[in-house]
Design a protein that fits this description.
Pfam families: NNMT_PNMT_TEMT. InterPro entries: NNMT_TEMT_trans, SAM-dependent_MTases_sf. Keywords: Methyltransferase, S-adenosyl-L-methionine, Transferase. It is a single chain. By secondary structure, this protein is an alpha/beta fold. The chain has a single domain, classed as Rossmann fold (3-Layer(aba) Sandwich). Helices cover 31% and strands 19% of the residues. The chain has helices at residues 23-30, 36-54, 73-78, 92-103, 116-122, 126-129, 135-142, 176-188, 221-228; strands at residues 62-66, 84-89, 143-147, 162-166, 195-202, 207-209, 212-214, 232-239, 252-260. Strands 3-2-1-4-5-9-8 form a 7-stranded mixed beta sheet, sandwiched between helices. Strand 6 and strand 7 form a beta hairpin. The protein starts with 22 loop residues before the first helix and ends in a 10-residue tail after the last strand. The relative contact order is 0.18.
């Protein structure tokens, strides 16, 4: 199937050329510098995760970033507290990029310098800054890259105790059914009471990563709330204040954050 930004045919996740995703072009366009939208997201999730883990006792913490793609800052947001972070990604090109960032490449001792402003933004919160960790060393120590399809997460059960999913469920298909299933699989991978953050492109028409065009599902705040509702306890859904400007073809960004429903008590463990 040929994908185009103007085509009306429904494009399922399996139809898209994920192995031809160009992570270098994607990072250059979206994350070469810290843009206002991402700075706003970082401000919100650092408060959310920082507040949660400040209240928690000792014990192993396992994090997952579902559909990590070529974006490191969701993993950085979980970095101080996690004994292990799984970057779960479908595209072989993105898997290779993530592995290079975790292990270092071209003589570098860790991830690329363009990610430093993202970490610095997180460190404006004392929950990050007071831990005095070397983020690159910590990243190499705790991050592992795993290739897999979001729809296959069900086999893991609620393995992870904190999770992120940024611009994935709505940016992999034009199908609302697959969008909802993607959200369900993400939430199902989290343990009861686990904090989460998920970001969505609002009313996206699709996007390029290098020469290839990739599908998107048209969603707004209602669809995000509706898809998350059955799986969460306390949660917030908000449209970012920053104006859309990262690329053409969408109307804004939506961030959802909260806690996986505690299946025993029906409330989040906060």
């Amino acid at each position: 199937m040929t994908l185009s930004s103007s085509g009306d045919a429904q494009v399922k996740n399996a139809d898209a050329p994920w192995d031809s995703f160009d992570p270098i072009a994607y990072v250059r366009h979206n994350y070469r510098v810290l843009q206002a939208e991402d700075a706003e997201i970082l401000h919100i999730i650092r408060d959310h995760f920082g507040g949660h883990f400040r209240k928690q006792g000792v014990g192993p913490v396992y994090g997952i970033d579902v559909g990590a793609g070529a974006n490191l800052y969701p993993a950085l947001s979980m970095l101080p507290w996690c004994d292990e972070i799984t970057l779960f990604e479908h595209s072989s090109a993105n898997v290779e990029y993530l592995a290079s960032q975790a292990d270092g490449h071209d003589g570098n001792s860790g991830y690329d310098e363009n990610w430093d402003p993202f970490w610095n933004a997180l460190c404006e919160h004392e929950a990050y800054s007071t831990r005095h960790l070397d983020p690159r060393e910590r990243f190499r120590k705790v991050v592992k890259v795993e290739q897999g399809n979001i729809f296959g997460l069900e086999r893991f059960g609620g393995r992870w105790s904190v999770g992120t999913m940024f611009f994935v469920a709505e940016s992999m298909t034009t199908s609302h059914q697959e969008f909802c299933l993607g959200v369900e699989r993400f939430m199902g991978a989290l343990a009861p009471g686990a904090p989460f953050a998920a970001a969505f492109m609002e009313h996206s028409k699709g996007y390029h990563a290098g020469e290839e065009f990739f599908p998107a599902c048209d969603v707004g705040e209602f669809e995000v709330r509706d898809s998350l509702g059955p799986f969460v306890g306390d949660f917030e859904v908000q449209r970012l204040k920053s104006a859309a400007g990262v690329r053409d073809g969408y109307s804004g960004m939506i961030l959802a954050y909260g806690w996986r429903r505690n299946t025993d008590a029906g409330i989040p463990a906060v």
